[in-house]
């Protein structure tokens, strides 16, 4: 199990605390420092069953500068969104846990973290 975190994020810290409390074995990826490549983002999106716009933090300054709210949300624009996430990793929603069974969850709630633990 791997968790993508921003240590400054309270949701990330909460998820780590719960993983520790449950004795989970996991690795931490500080995705702002160890930026995922476009292919990694595609893989995680597949594991999540989501599209790139579903995991984009649209209120971030970079999102506003890029004008993301006006970008199309369709198959033709998918690669453009993924490229933006790779170029601006702060736009990636957090934390994301990739579970050992090949799935993943956006672990912003205790229930989501527990869901990842159960997989």
Roughly what is the average pLDDT, rounded to an integer? 96
Form type = globular
- The proportion of residues forming helix, as a percent range, comes to 25-40%
The largest β sheet comes out as: 4 strands, mixed
Structure description:
The protein is an alpha+beta fold and 119 residues long. It has a single domain, classed as 3-Layer(aba) Sandwich (Glutaredoxin). The protein has five helices and four strands. A four-stranded mixed β-sheet has the order 2-1-3-4, with helices on both faces. Helix 1 links the parallel strand 1 (2-5) and strand 2 (27-30). The longest helix is centred in the N-terminal third of the chain and has 12 residues, at 10-21.
Helices, strands, pairings?
Blueprint: E1 2-5, H1 10-21, E2 27-30, H2 38-48, H3 61-66, H4 78-87, E3 96-98, E4 104-106, H5 110-117
Helix pairs in contact: 1-5
Family: Belongs to the ArsC family.
Organism: Streptomyces gancidicus BKS 13-15
Pfam families: ArsC (PF03960)
Primary descriptors:
four-stranded mixed β-sheet; alpha+beta; single chain; 12% strand; Glutaredoxin
In short:
GO terms for molecular function: arsenate reductase (glutaredoxin) activity. The chain has 119 residues and is an alpha+beta fold.
